[in-house]
Amino acid sequence: GNYELALDRALEMVGYQKFRREQEQARQEGRYLGIGLSTYVEICGGAPSAVAATLGARAGLWESALVRFHMTGKVTVFTGSATHGQGHETTFAQIAASELGIPMEDVDVVHGDTGQIQMGVGTFGSRSAAVGGGAIVLSTQKIKEKARKLAAHLFEAAEADIVYEDGKLFVAGAPAQAKTIQEIAMAAHYYASDLPEGMEPGLEATSFFDPKNFTWPFGTHIVVVEVDPDSGEVALNRYIGVDDVGNVINPMIVDGMVHGGIAQGVGQALQEEAIYDESGQLLT
User: How many H-runs (helices) and E-runs (strands) does the chain carry?
Assistant: First the structure.
């Protein structure tokens, strides 16, 4: 990662040198201004199964996704990564819609139902988008590969000449004669009598994605505070966060996650207390 870039950007945003001058002036006036700075690198996207095993894990840490095109042209994504507030229903639908070239509202995401969903590993360690989303992408790639084979058969063309673009399939150089992926899905289900030899009806794919590495988000956070010398009360005057999270699927959801993390950190630093009894047992 480019760690210096994140640090420099955060220092620029907070106006570090200017603040130091303001801090000195405030001290002379009896006001106590402080600045706190934290740079971090995280280990997320857990985890490559082979690595996890060397660290003591006794299970593979892949993730699964079944992506199913219905004959109506709608899509259902079954994911083993269950949401508990991160917005998977939105981001996973965006991934499938973007990869397949269909409207996002045509994608339904099903999670957390063991009566419907193939085996999954779960949601923890900031792995949902990186590993669960990766499995969805793999399944959409398999679907597009089958769609190209079927389109080549219907167009009586070579598979290598089929272009998949914005949810449409056509022979290179002849986009006006394109068929939509929804039409291909209908053909895969309804017109099963006219499939390439050896091709099964339907248009769906299941994938189990086992990443080769972790993900490594990083950044710099800076806070400017004022401390009341009599009461010890801390006021947060400014908070700057510069985070490199990789490819952003949904900016609003990412912003919400960062805001929530900041709120949690502030709560731990300033408003939460760890209370123990005389034997050292944590009571809170």
Answer: 7, 10
